[in-house]
């Protein structure tokens, strides 16, 4: 038997043992998946199988039969806060601080403007993660133009050195969307506070994948999407966290009628509501919102620590399989090896990334590509197993054998 075959057999056996001991393994049945390996839950989470029936009820009974009565009787009006409270334990927040609605981009706008206002006069700089997902940078720049702040792009590790008496706010990503690097939320939050500034964290790539600890680490404001690890569906609404201690002073730049203290009073003057409701804008997108609410059922009884433990074990195992199967030099991991610096995805730099990902997808291994040369593989602990990780690495090696080195189109 060849050495490669022995290695493959060993790794497959290890995968089977790890899957058998996995306390989250049974969760996979809650999702609509096929025989392939879905490693793109860090972009669009899979559909929980019970969701279509719940959405059908929203459409046919709540809307079709109850019509306008559903704003009260089906709890439509209070859905943004109610669903925020469902997300809260997943990101370490007590109830009453998260409101669901709008896109992440819109919530970045609300949070950055509000953070600048919370910081007060005399501070004119907003530090923005220089490696950020682009929308955060675009929105922060536009917000700064409106509020008269100056944007300072800074790599997260350099934030402590860049902080000063002029810093009003800092916008950071908890996990980098490209490399999968996990940033030091407790340490950076403490540094921002020591400088007297306000921090806004983007949790898109961490919520549902690892513990965040918003309250424990005294985060000021945070935003995140729900269509990745929270499986809320394409375009599902995002959320905004405003720490309770800031709520009374939270001054939204989008004070729509849904955030009014008396929305049905229809008064011409604006008076903000108390609590997380203050982060609302206009009429919520009820169908998407209730789709998300149903999808969150898959988290019932799941400790986030168990998710984190499995995520690290999965990404470790995938990296080990890649190392065993893939000839040296064809891919390089840009995801940190240290657990304290790793989110729930593995990003591999590969000169032939484009044809390689195309062929992987053709063979049922669905990851994605961040141009020009990064292959991303997201590990969603609720439905990805160790056998999936082994298979994905093995097929990656087979595909790399078909695509010659230096061939960026083939
Ligand atoms: C870190 C991060 N921020 C923001 C977004 C996008 O936000 P939106 O929901 O507005 O499309 C993404 C999307 O993938 C993201 O990864």
User: Within the CATH hierarchy, at the fold level, what is the topology of the largest domain?
Assistant: Aspartate Aminotransferase, domain 2
**Ligand species:** pyridoxal-5'-phosphate
Number of helices: 13
**Can you summarize the main beta sheet?**
7 strands, mixed
Q: Helix/strand-derived class? A: alpha/beta
Total domain count: 2
In the sheet with the most strands, the strands line up as 2-8-7-6-5-3-4
Mean pLDDT: 97
- Characterize the overall form: globular
Helix content: 25-40%
> What top-tier CATH class of the largest domain fits best?
Alpha Beta
Strand content: 5-15%
CATH superfamily grouping of the largest domain: Type I PLP-dependent aspartate aminotransferase-like (Major domain)
| Low-pLDDT segments | none
Can you give keywords for this protein?
410 residues, alpha/beta, 2 domains, 7-stranded mixed beta sheet, 4-stranded antiparallel beta sheet, 13 strands, globular, binds pyridoxal-5'-phosphate, kynureninase activity, Kynureninase
Q: Any overview of this molecule?
A:
- It contains 13 helices and 13 strands.
- 47% of the residues are buried.
- The strands form three sheets. The protein has a seven-stranded mixed beta sheet, with helices on both faces. The protein has a four-stranded antiparallel beta sheet with strand order 9-10-13-12. A two-stranded parallel sheet has the order 1-11.
- By secondary structure, it is α/β, with parallel strands linked by helices.
- It has two domains: 3-30 and 302-402, Aspartate Aminotransferase, domain 1 (Alpha-Beta Complex), CATH 3.90.1150.10; 52-299, Aspartate Aminotransferase, domain 2.
- α1 runs antiparallel to α13 (386-402).
- The protein binds pyridoxal-5'-phosphate (PLP).
- Pyridoxal-5'-phosphate is lined by residues 103-105, 133, 135-136, 173, 177, 202, 204-205, 225, 238.
